[in-house]
Amino acid sequence: MTVRVEKNGAVWTVIHARPEARNAMNPENAQALYEAFLAFDQDESASVAVFWGEGGAFCAGWDLKHAAALEGDEPLQELMFPADGPNPHNTLGPMGPSRLELSKPVIAAVAGPAVAGGMELAMWCDFRVMEESAYMGVYCRRWGVPLIDGGTVRLPRLVGQGRALELILTGRQVPAAECAQIGLAEYVVPDGESRAKAEELAQQIARFPQACARADRWSAINQHGLPMVDALAQEFSNGRPILKQEGIEGAQRFSSGLGRHGDFGKI
After folding, report:
1. How do residues 159-213 score in pLDDT, each as one tens digit?
2. Which of the 8 DSSP states describes residue 230?
3. What is the pTM assigned to this prediction?
4. CB contact at 8 A, 61 and 139
5. For 102, phi and psi rounded to 5 degrees?
6. Which of 59, 74, 89, 179 lies at a CB distance of 3.0 to 4.6 Å from 184, suitable for a disulfide?
């Protein structure tokens, strides 16, 4: 199997295992990853996912050897965007899960290359843990393959338009240290430790009241483009029922003596 899931309590690690191709994406793998992340989002026992590429590479992008064998209109058919389908927000992308709007967080654990479509997949995740020798880059710039899995949308939102355009147009390599500096990565860890660090962070997040965590995540994602007053109203409307659902009970736990002085150990 080129895609498998390993579960540790509420944390699922979704593993792309095609190391002989640097985890480049073909249609079969894209479908399998898409289905794995849909299953994660729909499983009530799962809270946080880690996305990791086996064999020292996160993802080298769309499989160009596969693409080179396509003829006629096959490339267009394979890359269609079924926006008129029953659920346009959760359609299959060329890179698999890149168009999914999940209700739960996903952490990217990045070793080696996360380039071209692989960079788009890393940016699809909520945040990124990169190994010191890992790197990103719009490597598809060399071959006339455009960014069609969120690269031109997510990159400006993460690093700003000017920096995004420089990276998109030059296609240059972006080392992990620079990724952290400009907002493309949140953690840089020694080589070989990205999965362990991402899973550690996932377990920390999974310990918290989940309705509240998901509501705050939703609000942070969906405030894009809204005027301040509308964003504040949306935040309040989204969070108000959670206060009753989880917040009052949490306040009672604090009142009983738990979590004092910023202690996250006993909550």
Report:
1. 999 999 999 999 999 999 999 999 999 999 999 999 999 999 999 999 999 999 9
2. H
3. 0.92
4. yes
5. -80, 160
6. 179
